């Protein structure tokens, strides 16, 4: 009765739908960063206007060119897409963590609050989010190796986040425009890391989701090895 109730709860959460939404959002976010990179290349090719950078210091900003203004729009839209992606990914992550707890019958390695704080608290944000994903997968499918996509996603995410010009940057959009005029390659490398992280993240979400869907169908408390032994013994 307990296992049946647990399975019913797991099915009601519809982890497959959450995985599709999170994976799709990651790919859309990656596409948004491709567009951002294209605009940075356009800025570099156009060259800095004779009037200098948009932010001219001491609180003085010159009027933006049409291309610069469109880059502001591109970055704003990209930020909106990234926000939606983050919300869908966090919803998926919380769900697979809870599902893994029910399936394995043991408490998760990380407290639930770290699903959110793990991304923003210094130092722990270097490994907690990956650890939550890895723990959910291992609790779901202990007989399998962690998908390579999880590690690729996390390495590229860190490069994109902390490269100084990627997702986390203290510079304003006008300063980033000036960087594109001065030397565009660091910007493009950071963009490439973000795009790669988005694609690898989509594969990681798909792999973890597929493992949970398969395990839910078998029911809580039964691994592949246990199920195979049951078939042989029966």
Descriptive overview:
This protein has 234 residues and is mainly α. It has one domain (2-233). Helices cover 72% and strands 0% of the residues. Helix 2 packs across helix 7 and helix 5 runs parallel beside helix 8. The relative contact order is 0.17. Mean pLDDT is 87; it is low at 224-234.
Largest sheet: none
Contiguous helical run count: 9
Mean pLDDT: 87
Extended strand count: 0
The SS-based structural class is mainly alpha
TL;DR of this structure?
This protein has 234 residues and is an all-alpha fold. Helix content is 72%, strand content 0%.
Features:
mainly alpha, 234 residues
List the helices and strands and how they pair.
Blueprint lengths: L1 H12 L1 H32 L19 H39 L9 H4 L10 H13 L7 H15 L10 H10 L2 H34 L5 H10 L1
Helix pairs in contact: 2-3, 2-7, 2-8, 3-5, 3-8, 5-8, 6-8
């Amino acid at each position: 009765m307990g296992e049946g109730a647990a399975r019913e709860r797991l099915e009601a959460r519809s982890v497959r739908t959450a995985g599709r939404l999170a994976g799709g959002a990651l790919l859309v976010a990656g596409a948004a960063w491709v567009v951002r990179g294209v605009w940075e290349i356009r800025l570099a090719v156009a060259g800095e206007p004779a009037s200098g950078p948009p932010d001219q210091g001491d609180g003085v900003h010159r009027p933006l060119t049409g291309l610069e203004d469109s880059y502001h729009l591109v970055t704003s839209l990209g930020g909106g897409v990234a926000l939606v992606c983050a919300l869908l990914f966090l919803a998926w992550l919380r769900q697979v963590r809870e599902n893994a707890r029910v399936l394995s019958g043991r408490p998760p390695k990380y407290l639930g609050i770290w699903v959110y704080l793990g991304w923003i608290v210094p130092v722990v944000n270097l490994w907690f989010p990956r650890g939550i994903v890895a723990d959910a997968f291992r609790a779901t499918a202990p007989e399998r190796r962690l998908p390579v996509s999880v590690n690729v996603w996390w390495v590229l995410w860190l490069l994109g986040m902390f490269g100084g010009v990627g997702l986390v940057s203290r510079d304003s959009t006008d300063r980033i425009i000036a960087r594109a005029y001065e030397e565009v390659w660091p910007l493009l490398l950071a963009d490439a890391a973000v795009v790669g992280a988005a694609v690898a993240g989509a594969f990681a979400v798909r792999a973890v989701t597929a493992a949970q869907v398969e395990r839910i169908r078998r029911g809580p408390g039964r691994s592949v090895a246990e199920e195979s032994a049951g078939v042989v013994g029966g």
